[in-house]
Write a structure and sequence with these properties.
The chain is built from ten helices and ten strands. With about 325 residues, the chain is α/β, with parallel strands linked by helices. Helix 8 links the parallel strand 7 and strand 8.
Length: about 325
């Protein structure tokens, strides 16, 4: 393993004072999926381990991909519900930067669990070790945790077990952190916005349902009807939104993303999954984050709005300037 204790320069004063390395195992990948286990390794400012914590969580439903996380319904039956462990988890996250491998996923699952429990998550920033490895230009064959671990000589004992995954990540994060400090690398910290509104969409009964091995999600994607209004073009500052405008979203939102998208659709806007030259505006609370959507929006000159400004404009969306009328069918001529 690399000797990460020696730094060529003083420790960067802008670096965080503590970290919480997190891993969660879940029933799946969709917004309605639940956490079945969680682990936290608390690290000090230099990345040294202070303590660790692990818990099972009863998801109140079937456990999903048992072949991945190994947690059966029987194993989870007597486990605590998330609200029952939220205080212990919050104590370990409070005042620290959440560190995870693909941190957007772990944070989104935690944010939803906290929102369901009507508790505010005590997390304000996150750091993704995939993004950090890219900043450090580590010579990895891919961005899997096992590749990052192998690079730093960390031995995985139980893959997809939350406690062992968190341990492996903590041991790989420490030399990454020191490499960043030596090189004067700015840590890729992103803001975490706890959800202020949440709604559970109906979940179909899954008793006896057996998803095929390797299936990535266990629900059909939501298909919204096509927007009936033509695209009036880009949003103009100090003017109202207009029905038909194409709106894209990027990053964390304080209102559950699907709920926010539903409101946009109900107002007559077109929700786009990507940014193109036809996009009317991009909604993001972190316009400086180098996500693909923000990068494209800036390159195209697409207007960017924060969530609060967008939700304010949603209250009074102007009617479409013209409604697309389909040509008459041959039988009506």
């Amino acid at each position: 393993m690399l000797d990460d204790r020696q730094t060529a320069a003083p420790w960067p004063t802008a670096y965080p004072q503590g970290y919480a390395v997190v891993d969660v195992e879940t029933t799946g990948l969709a917004r309605d999926d639940r956490i079945v286990s969680a682990a936290v390794y608390r690290l000090d400012a230099l990345g040294d381990v202070e303590d660790h914590w692990y818990t099972l969580v009863n998801p109140e439903r079937d456990p999903g991909p048992v072949w991945i996380h190994g947690l059966t319904s029987e194993a989870l039956e007597g486990a605590p519900l998330f609200p029952e462990v939220a205080a212990q988890l919050s104590e370990r996250l409070d005042g620290r930067v959440l560190v995870a491998h693909n941190a957007a996923f772990d944070w989104s699952m935690l944010a939803r669990e906290y929102a369901r429990a009507a508790i505010t998550a005590p997390v304000r920033q996150r750091l993704c070790t995939i993004a950090l490895s890219k900043e450090l230009r580590l010579p990895l064959p891919n961005h899997k945790l096992e590749s990052l671990a192998a690079h730093f000589g960390v031995v995985q004992q139980r893959a997809h077990h939350a406690l062992d995954d968190a341990r492996v990540l903590a041991e790989a994060f420490r030399p990454s952190l020191h490499a960043a400090a030596r090189g004067g690398v700015r840590l890729p910290l992103l803001e975490c916005r706890p959800l202020t509104e949440w709604t559970d969409s109906p979940v179909a009964p899954r008793v006896g349902y057996q998803p095929s091995r390797g299936q990535g999600t266990w629900r059909a994607s939501r298909k919204r009807p096509a927007c009936p209004y033509p695209n009036p073009g880009r949003y103009e500052s100090d003017k109202p939104l207009v029905q038909g405008m194409r709106v894209a979203f990027s990053g964390d939102t304080s209102v559950d993303r699907e709920l926010l998208e539903d409101r946009a659709v109900e107002a007559g806007l077109h929700v786009a999954t990507s940014v193109s030259r036809l996009t009317s505006l991009l909604v993001t609370n972190d316009p400086d984050a180098a996500t693909s959507k923000t990068v494209k929006a800036k390159s195209f000159g697409t207007p960017i709005l924060e969530e609060s400004a967008f939700t304010h404009l949603l209250r009074d969306v102007a009617p479409a300037r013209s409604v697309a009328v389909p040509p008459p069918s041959p039988s009506s001529e």
